[in-house]
Amino acid sequence: MIKKALFLLIAAATLFTSPAVALFSGIIFTLFFSPQFESKSRKTSKYLLQVSVVGLGFGMNLIESIKSSYEGMLFTICSVVLVMATGILLYKWLKIDKTIGYLISSGTAICGGSAIAAIAPVIKANGNQISMAMAVVFTLNAIAMFIFPPIGHLLGLSQQEFGTWAAIAIHDTSSVVGAGKMYGEEALKVATTIKLTRALWVIPLSIVSSFIFKNENGGKKSISIPWFIVLFIFAMIINTYFPINETLSSIIYTFSHKSLSLTLFLIGSTLSISSIKKVGSRPIIMGVILWILISVVSLSVILLF
Fold it and tell me: Rg of the Cα trace of the chain?
C-alpha cells in the first residue's frame, strides 16, 4: 500500500519535471521497488504518449520551420539520412533488437525523446524498448549540453557555426536550446530555427517506418495509418494558419509537455532489471557510436565549409 502511494506521489510530481527526470525517476523507482500498476501503466502510457505528441503540434509553426536557411535544410536532410542508414547497419551488426535499434537511430537522427515518442506507437514498440532507447538518448543529451559549449569556445566557433552544430549533433530540443543559450543569443536563435526544420522529419519518417515494420510486432500485412501523426500535422496547420486563442494554445502545449513527462515516468516504471540484463550494453554502445559519428562529421563539415 505504501509503495503504491509513493508511486502515485512521484507520478504527480513528474508533471513539474523535465521528461528526462521523469523517465529516470520511473526507472529508479522500479529498481528499488517492485513495479506498481504495471499493466495499467503500459496501457495508459500507450495512449497518453499519442495524445502528448498531438498536443505538441500546437507549439510548432509550419512557416517558421520551412523558412530555415537552405544550408541548414540541406545539412539536416544529409544528417538524418546518414544517421538512419548507419543506425540500421549498426543494430544489425551488433545484433540488437530491431525495434530498440530503430528507436535509438530515430532519436539520434531527428529530435531525441520527441522522435522516439512519435515513432514508438507507429512501429508498436513496447514499454521496455521505449525505456531503453529513451535512457540512451537522454543520457547522451545531458552530456552534450555541458561539453559542447566548451568545445565550441576551444575551437573558436562563431555563433552561427555553433548554433548549426548544436542543432544537428544534439538530439533533444531542450538540450539544443540549453547548449545554444550557454553559447550566446545568436547561437540560440540559429540552433532553434534549424532544430524546428529537423523536427519536421518525424512526419515522413513515421510514414516510412510504418512500411518498414508492417510485418513486425504482430505480423500485420496491412499498413496501420498513424492517425496521431495526422492529427499532429493538423495541429501544426491550425497553429500556423488558423491560430486559436493564444492562451488556449499555450495551455494545450504546456499540458502536452507535462503529460509527456508523466508518460515517460509510467514507461520507465515498467522497465525491470531482468529486461535491462536481457538487452545488455549493446544499445548503449550503438547510441554512443551514432552520437560521435554525427558530432564529428557535422563539426568537420562546418569547419571545412
Answer: 19
Whether residue 220 has pLDDT greater than 70: no
Q: Is the pLDDT of residue 221 over 50?
A: no
pLDDT at 217 over 60: no
Distances (CA, A) of 39 to 36, 62, 116, 122, 158: 9, 37, 21, 20, 50
Alpha helices in 159-281 (DSSP H): 159-169, 173-183, 185-199, 202-212, 227-241, 246-268, 273-279
Q: Which long-range contacts (CB under 8 A, 24 or more apart) does 251-256 make?
A: 252/55, 252/58, 253/55, 253/56, 253/58, 253/59, 255/55, 256/51, 256/52, 256/53, 256/54, 256/55, 256/56, 256/58, 256/59
Largest CA distance in the chain: 61
CA distances from 98 to 27, 72, 143, 212, 267 (A): 22, 30, 26, 11, 19
pLDDT tens readout for residues 139-154 = 787 788 778 999 999 9
| Distance from C-alpha of 5 to C-alpha of 13, rounded to nearest angstrom | 12
Lookup: cell for 245: 486563442
Output the nine-digit C-alpha cell for 104: 535509438
Q: Residue 184, SS3? A: coil
Sorted by where each begins, the domain ranges of the chain are: 17-29+37-304
Calpha distance 175→144 (Å, rounded): 8
pTM to 2 decimals?
A: 0.71
